[in-house]
Amino acid sequence: MALRRLLQRSSINHISSRVLPSCSHSFSAAASPSERIRATLFPGDGIGPEIAESVKQVFSAAGVPIEWEEHFVGDKVDPRTESLLTWESLESVRRNGVGLKGPMATPIGKGHRSLNLTLRKELGLYANVRPCYSLPGYKTRYDGVNLVTIRENTEGEYSGLEHQVVRGVVESLKIITRQASLRVAEYAFHYAKANGRQRVSAIHKANIMRKTDGLFLKCCREVAEKYPEITYEEVIIDNCCMMLVKNPTLFDVLVMPNLYGDIISDLCAGLIGGLGLTPSCNIGEGGIALAEAVHGSAPDIAGKNLANPTALLLSSVMMLRHLKLNDKADQIHNAILSTIAEGKYRTVDLGGSSSTTDFTKAVCDHL
Amino acid sequence: MKLADGLFLESCREVATKYPGIKYNEIIVDNCCMQLVSKPDQFDVMTHVPLQVTPNLYGNLVANTAAGIAGGTGVMPGGPSLDQIPVGYYWWITTPSLPKPFDWVSGNVGQDHAIFEQGASAGNVGNEKLVEQKKANPVALLLSSAMMLRHLQFPSFADRLETAVKRVIAEGRYRTKDLGGNSTTQEVVDAVIAKLD
Fold this sequence. Notes:
The structure holds two protein chains of two kinds. Chain A is α/β, with parallel strands linked by helices. Chain A has helices at 2-19, 21-24, 48-62, 87-96, 115-123, 178-194, 212-225, 237-246, 258-272, 310-322, 326-342, 356-365; strands spanning 37-42, 66-70, 98-101, 125-133, 146-152, 162-166, 169-172, 199-204, 231-236, 253-256, 281-284, 288-292. A ten-stranded mixed sheet of chain A has the order 2-1-3-12-11-4-5-10-8-9, sandwiched between helices. In chain A, strands 6-7 form a two-stranded antiparallel ribbon. A four-stranded antiparallel sheet of chain B has the order 1-2-3-4. At the A-B interface, strand 6, strand 7, helix 8 and helix 9 of A face helix 1, helix 2 and helix 3 of B. Chain A: Residues 36-363 form the Isopropylmalate dehydrogenase-like domain.
């Protein structure tokens, strides 16, 4: 029953893409620098508002032509979305095509969907992109990391189709569809080409899960043929984990189904210093991009001006690149890297003693 | 995966209540991988062996990740569960002498049988060159056989074998290519025999 609903929904997307061909296959919205672009901002909870403020300050110091439309998570469930996020908030992202999201803590309770799930389903966010690179000046056990993980975010092992067969025996369905696999593979190769990356590795366990991961690989191969200038390889997931911790420089762009993507993207974040330093961007149908900081809302340091805004700042840079505002993106990116490399202004989580505002000011000064 | 992994956790909790002397905690797999790569020492216990129990796929991933951190498949004994054998378990043994923080052993245990083998074979299976040049690292299989001896209730033999292997590695004179040396398999084995007391 649920499976039929899942397949129906994906066929609806397919129909709409035929009706509006110009929107469906565009992966990014090119923006002319003269006009101001509207972007939705979800500051989020806990440290969210403080780090969102950092982003706003850096953007205005750099003269980025973005006009923020702020939306907050409500405290009442909106029946149109079955969530604490209102219909208006979601419409805002759909309209603007681009957004930035801080950490959101889904309150415990029934009667509403989780916030992340709501965003993902309503905006059709199908690919989660996480670039992981070693930050100069912040040393971890691994050097020279420079890779991007691209995770299929709608199906796979997280299709939500589980049932009890009898007591003590449970079945979980892993769904892989040609449509979703092609879609994420297309995005991976497009991203690789647009960002000057040389190699795309598809991560799988098709030797065991021949039909599901096999289909995923087949789709990746099809897309690979259209990009002969990009090297394509296939790496088994367990071997991939081992290689990542022995020599992460071996990897460039990784594309994978949902579960492996979940694990590998967190593993890669661990290689470079954790979720507090890792940017992330979710790509949706019609070229929607929702950049987000994937760390938690840290309620224990909320309001104390201690939070590290790096993850949200780097995510906002990803948002700028999606909008093809590459000059501004590079400018801000370099300012952030210089500030961290210099080491004079570091927040508490990186071993320093600077406040959020000090760090933000240092980044602005480095512009 | 609330039902499937939920059932796994429920089962673990039930068994945990029967061993109040052993600390039990649960960790989400993606967080586990992140912690493993950034702070592997938190999983390191100095004198005893902590146990990690995981469902099949996660176990495969975590074992390979940890083996990579430990130094690759050459030092990691043990392996994935085979079809006939329902349970695979992994032990961690600290070897301060190795350049990496910890070492791996593993065995596969079933109702009536147990098989002990080299773990995470990624990349080394069918490597003809290693066989020809006699440069394969025997450490993993030696430690697996020590595990087998323990299983057979021969702890003193197991201890003697493990101690000898550790001494050889600590000394550093006889190491195969994958550990940065250029000894042959036979040289390492002879060294282990020499260090047996």
